[in-house]
Amino acid sequence: xxxxxxxxxxxxVSFQEAVIQGLASDKGLYFPEIITPLNASFFDTIENxxxxxxxFEAIKQFVGDEIPETVLKEIIxxxxxxxxxVVEVEKGIYSLELFHGPTMAFKDVGARFMSRCLxxxxxxxxxxxxxxxxxxxxxxxxxxxxxxxxxxxxxxVILYPSGKVSDIQEKQLTTLGQNIKxxxxxxxxxxxxxxxxxxxxxxxxxxxNLTSANSINIAxxxxxxxxxxxxxxxxxxxxxxxxxxxxxxxxxxxxxxxxAKKLGLPIEHFVASTNVNDxxxxxxxxxxxxxxxxxxxxxxxxxxxxxxxxIRIQEMYQNDLKAFKKDFSSYSxxxxxxxxxxxxxxxxxxxxxxxxGAVGYLGLKKExxxxxxxxxxxxxxxxxxxxxxxxxxxxxxTLPIPTQIKSVINEEKVSVKISSYEELKDFxx
Length: 429
Description:
InterPro entries: Ser/Thr_deHydtase_PyrdxlP-BS (IPR000634), Thr_synth_N (IPR029144), Thr_synth_N_sf (IPR037158), Thr_synthase-like (IPR004450), Threonine_Synthase (IPR051166), TrpB-like_PALP (IPR001926), TrpB-like_PALP_sf (IPR036052). Pfam families: PALP (PF00291), Thr_synth_N (PF14821). The protein is α/β, with parallel strands linked by helices. The chain has a domain of 203 residues: 3-Layer(aba) Sandwich (Rossmann fold). The strands form 3 sheets. Strands 4-5-13-10-11-12 form a 6-stranded mixed β-sheet, sandwiched between helices. A 5-stranded parallel β-sheet has the order 9-6-7-8-14, with helices on both faces. Helix 3 packs across helix 4, helix 11 packs parallel to helix 13 and helix 15 crosses helix 16. The mean pLDDT is 93.
């Protein structure tokens, strides 16, 4: 399998090269040269397969022969070491819970998969190290820190916007030590992401062997396909069309879901549900892609003004807006609407949704008005405990602290404050 840059001005590369480089030399995101749909028989019998078997079939063409099948299966087994329950919230509407991993966020899947791929590629390179440079608006940092902790030959540097992640999210990325370093940026997520992209293209940092663990990296992004397959497996027996609503910030999840559809997964429609950072909803309304600086909200992991993965989605639809709109809708919601949805869900069903999942729920409810007899699934991307300062007062409850959180909540935060790219560059050396 070869990968090309979506800016079309860089050489094609292997899976290994794309993982290690993260971003192409022309600033473009990598995209697979060929997408081969899976055999119909795979979907006909998917309920008889384990999650690990499903994931292997979904990902193997993108890895090719660059990781032996036995090793790839081991990587998948270590990646999928937790459950992905589909929980009925109300009649015909389900929550796909992606927060049962080590850091209680969906990004555990991509971070664990990528870290193990990188460790395999580094196994014979004792002399050189890779530096994973990653920007986070919330959960990416913790998942990457956990996934890469102690991985030989890899240093991790995480940039996060000061005061714009929750206390628990901050503890998850600033307390682990070892090969994990956290940089607290005076700015918003887009500033962090811009610094990361600039560093990749800085030839004076070539000796650091920089790569990214944001969803711009194919090894972080592609495994996010898995849970769409798992949800289909669970709900297949109902024999109804499926509508997926993804709380969307950098658009990695929904982009991976569309890739799953390109592989043949029977999904009727996607909804990108956003907070007030509404670049994509506005694009669908007027046909103009006009990113604006991100605004802080209670669903902070979605505070992204210029979502990186949207260009991959456009590529899968060959920039055909009419075809795209057939499969895809996008709606935006305010913090007030989000809080009200959280209260309604809890009052009606006792289900505790955090702000991102509540945004996904709102978009799903709106889209289902257009789809008779469909089942709706919204992605619940992080455990409510990670947003207890929002969830507890909104719902009038006290959340028990899960074991995964207890392990970091009383640890001491260690971070370095920076406010410019030059300070990042000095830190990297």
